[in-house]
Structure formats: C-alpha cells, structure tokens
Amino acid sequence: MDSSTALYNQLKEAQPFFVLAGPNVIESEEHILHMAKQIKAVTSKLGLPLVFKSSFDKANRTSSKSFRGPGLAEGLKILEKVKITYDLPIVTDVHESSQCEAVGRVADIIQIPAFLCRQTDLLVAAAKTGKIVNIKKGQFCAPSVMANSAEKVRLAGNQNVMVCERGTMFGYNDLIVDPRNFEWLREANCPVVADVTHALQQPAGKKLEGGGVASGGLRELIPCVARTAVAVGVDGLFMEVHDDPLNAPVDGPTQWPLRHLEELLEELVAIARVSKGKHKYDIDLTPFRG
Q1: Residue 203 in contact with residue 196, Cβ under 8 Å?
Q2: Rounded Cα gap, residues 48 and 261, in angstroms
Q3: Is 247 one of the catalytic residues?
Q4: Please, what sign has the CA dihedral across residues 228, 230, 236, 238?
Q5: Is the pLDDT of residue 60 over 70?
Q6: What is the pLDDT of residues 163-204, one digit of tens each?
Q7: pLDDT confidence of residue 69
C-alpha cells in the first residue's frame, strides 16, 4: 500500500474526526514552524489526526493589492521543512494544472479551491500526482455537483478523494451553511470535510480606507458551524488558525484564535462522541401502535 492510500485510510477511519488546520497563508518560515508546533501539540493531546495547512499563494484574492504569500518555490520549501521537523502531513491548495507536479512532491493532500471545483484539467492534474485530493464545493454549486468532481479524480486513476463544504452564496457578500449539505455530500462516496472558517466569510464584504474591498467574516460563529458539522457526523474539520488573527495579512476575520483551539476542539470531540451522525437512521414507516 502506498503512503497516500495509507494516509487516506487513516483519515477515513479517524474517530471522531480528523483535522486540517493552520494559518491561511505562509507569512514567514518562523511563523509557520511556530504554528505547526502549537497546533500539533493541541491535536496530539486530544488524539486527533492532524494535516497541517497553509497556502504558498493566495491567487484568488478580491484585490490585486492583497498579500499573496511567498510563491510556489519558497512556499514549498517552508512546507517541506514543517513536514520534516514535526513529522506532519501537509495540505495546500493549487490554482493551475502546472503547479500540481511540484506541489505533489511535498504535499500529502492537494486542495482544489472552491472557485475551481469543476475545472477538469486541474482535477485530473491533481489526481495524477497520486496524492489525496480535497475538493472544496463551489459557493455557487449544489452538493450534488461534487459527486461529478470526485468522479473526475477517480476516472483519472486516483481513488483517494475528499469533498469539502464551505458555504453557499446567500445574496451579495455573504455565505450560509446548509447542514443538509453534509448529508448530501456523502453521495460522492468519499470522506466529507467541513470548512468551518471559510464558510463564515463575507466575500468582498469589508470596505478599506482609500477605497477597495477585502473579505470580512463572522469569526464568532465558527463554534456554531463546527458544532453543527460534528453533530451531523462529518469525517474531517478544516480550520484556519492564527496566533494573532487581528494582524493576519489575509482572512483575519475568519481565522480562529490559537489560544482557543484546544478549548473548541475538546468540546467538538465531546459532541461528536455522543452523536450518531455518522450512522444513517433505518426509518420504519410501518404503523406504530405504541
């Protein structure tokens, strides 16, 4: 069994769930190593499998002036150092087919951004690396669409695929999480992940001084969405975490404070362990006489 399949099976079997977590974007090598150490300490204490997340390039920012990160080459060097130093698998996102081969040499999970969830060439290129592919559901998509996206990965020869809920557009500058999607995404026949931070973005909802806009968010509702997700019985949680979210260069309003990570995950583990969300009810509709 190759290492990707072994990790995939480990994540599928994780009880009560696995965690994909880290800061939104690589700010510096020092910061990323610090965050990886701290997050691993928390998840190890709670017995939760961790895949460390950060992005080398934020290519789909609202403004061209937004911070994007160190870029492909430098970013992958930093992520590889995290992987070696802390013995952690890595998840990071790609935006172009040409990035997949290089990213696949470092990352254990290649993430497809929500905006690109139907891009066949990108899905196929990610699949051909042999690494696990995590596809975020487009904000504009019904959950049924993700079965097709997952099948594109499988048809390219890679069975190690996951799908991720991250909210649906609800009017302008807002997203809403429909908990029914966690159930319907299971029709893709693969692990279901809940992105409990991006799901609370307010795209282009924050006006900047001097004009322009950036993403806002509703950080205070992250526990609400996370509690719902684990109660329904998702397989994994995706969370962006920061030690200083008010000064994070990207997506500060939807990054969870590192100081509260253990507290929140501890509660979520307790909820997941008493929930029967992963077990479908066998509903008996025959007449009931009491």
Answers
A1: no
A2: 13
A3: no
A4: positive
A5: no
A6: 999 999 988 888 999 999 999 999 999 999 999 999 998 876
A7: 62
**Measured distance CA(53)–CA(195) in Å, rounded:** 12
- In angstroms, the CA 161 to CA 59 distance is 23
Q: Identify the active-site residue in 53, 58, 131, 136.
A: 58
**Residue 58 is a catalytic residue:** yes
For helices 29-46 and 72-86, what crossing angle results, to 10°? 40
State both tokens at 171: 């009017």
Q: What is the pLDDT of residue 251?
A: 80
Note if 181 is an active site residue: no
Q: In this structure, what are the phi and psi dihedrals at residue 11, rounded to the nearest 5 degrees?
A: -70, -40
Work out the number of other CB atoms within 10 angstroms of the CB of residue 124: 18
* CA separation for the pair 213, 216 (Å, rounded): 9
Active-site entry in 24, 134, 158, 160: 24
Q: Write out pLDDT tens, residues 231-243.
A: 999 999 999 999 9
Query: Of the residues 57, 93, 195, 251, which is catalytic?
Result: 251
Q: Quote the CA–CA distance of 97 and 290 in Å, as a whole number.
A: 60
More confident call, 69 vs 185? 185
Q: Tokens 């996102």, residue? A: 93
Helix (H) or strand (E) holding 223: helix 222-232
